[in-house]
Amino acid sequence: MNGSLHPSAPHHLPGFITAPGETDVFMVVMAALLILAVLSVGLLFLRLHTLPERIAHKNHKLQFEIVAVLGLLALFTHIHAFWVAGLLLALIDIPDFGWPLRRMAGSLEKIAGIEPGKGADEADKSDEPGTETRPDEGPIEMPKVIVPSPTSKDRAHA
Length: 158
Prior knowledge:
Number of strands: 2
Shape: rod-shaped
Radius of gyration: 38 Å
Number of helices: 7
Mean pLDDT: 80
């Protein structure tokens, strides 16, 4: 192919115009830059989108699952109120109301002579009716109470 210019073309062309049949380097560079820009903006979007979830996970919040669900709802529905609610929920400390109850249960287990945290295991072993377990003696058999059924004679007197 002849590398000469077209007769109606200006004598000086800019450097980004390539000759026919050659690789357009400027277009390849711009395509790579566009792909990197789209990937970096997408990564930034996802990092920002998971911000409430990462805050709740880092601080070991009780409401982590709720924050995660709100984040997914915001991602799939594009309703930004879910994201804002998740962020607020991740930043707020909800008191652990179960903590005093766990302390009371641990104290009662200590008084009963059970290792703290093992009381539920002992209760699962004594599922059979009439059997009771004690940590120091093992299972004991409870006496069965036999109630006589009323006879027809007793029913007549009542």
